[in-house]
Specification:
InterPro entries: Aldolase_TIM, His_biosynth, HisA/PriA, Isoase_HisA-like, RibuloseP-bd_barrel. With about 250 residues, the chain is an alpha/beta fold. The protein has helices at about 30-40, 50-55, 65-70, 85-95, 105-110, 110-120, 155-160, 185-195, 210-215, 225-230, 235-240, and strands at about 1-10, 15-20, 20-30, 45-50, 75-80, 100, 125-130, 140-145, 150-155, 170-175, 200-205, 220-225. It has one domain (about 1-240): TIM Barrel. Helix content is about 35%, strand content about 30%. Helix 1 (about 30-40) packs parallel to helix 3 (about 65-70). The chain starts with a strand and ends in an 8-residue tail after the last helix.
Length: about 250
């Protein structure tokens, strides 16, 4: 199970939100590049970056900062936020980003996302499906920076994009994100049981090393961790000692 430290960029700072609420933004550093360097020095090989300004404005805003992180570290990046077109995606890929993250667009414009899968190949795309109502039989996808609940279910979206070869899903229970209450292990078990062989990334609320052990044991491909690292609940080096975890 790979460990992805997370950097969310807002106003050129590294921040964390709670449940996707921009009003809850807490700034941890005015230098996201320095944060990335520190994650790498702690043993990380991967990095999850979200351009929150891009999410707000529907276009890539923080590409210069992202390009600097890519240039000045050896980290393998997956990046989301404001990617709406093949041109947006290629700008990031041309800067060395390994994978792009597609979220709201997957619900709002499936034909464009299908064309991205065809143009880039499934290996270049992480499909972010962020859910509300997750303990029900039908978790529903939220869009527009998690502020709007769609009528599309998690199961519907995964099944649809499986026809285009999607290989990696980033799944977040929004109610857990940044709340420090732990992640929704039950949701991930159901997702893995429904779609054996799918690479699933857990994100949102991971608060303890015990959770990481449980996620690794159930076959999670990777985990995205933010607040727990920033607030020293556990370290990158400690996370990498979990059986089944890797750089």
């Amino acid at each position: 199970m790979k460990i992805f430290p997370a950097i969310d960029i807002l106003n050129d700072c590294a921040v964390r939100l709670t449940k996707g609420d921009f009003e809850s933004a807490k700034t941890y550093s005015a230098d996201p590049v320095d944060v990335a360097r520190k994650f790498e020095a702690a043993g990380a090989k991967y990095l999850h970056v979200v351009d929150l300004d891009g999410t707000k404005y529907g276009r890539s805003v923080s590409i210069k900062t992202i390009a600097t992180i890519q240039r000045e570290t050896g980290l393998r990046l997956q990046v989301g936020g404001g990617i709406r077109t093949l041109e947006d995606a290629m700008r990031l890929i041309n800067e060395g980003v390994e994978r792009i993250i597609i979220g709201s667009l997957a619900v709002q414009d499936p034909s464009t996302v299908a064309s991205l899968f065809q143009a880039l190949g499934p290996g270049r795309i992480t499909l972010a499906l962020d859910c509300q109502n997750c303990d029900s039989d039908t978790p529903l996808i939220a869009v527009n920076g998690w502020q709007t609940r769609s009528n599309r279910s998690l199961w519907e979206m995964v099944s649809y994009y499986r026809t285009y070869g999607v290989s990696r899903i980033l799944c977040t229970d929004i109610e857990c994100d940044g709340a420090g209450c732990g992640s929704n292990l039950s949701l991930y078990r159901r997702l893995l049981e429904r779609y054996p062989g799918l690479n699933v990334q857990a994100s949102g609320g991971i608060a303890t090393l015990a959770e990481l052990t449980e996620l690794a044991s159930m076959g999670m491909e990777s985990c995205v961790i933010g607040k727990s690292f920033y607030e020293s609940q556990f370290s990158v080096s400690a996370a990498l000692t979990i059986q089944g975890a890797s750089c």
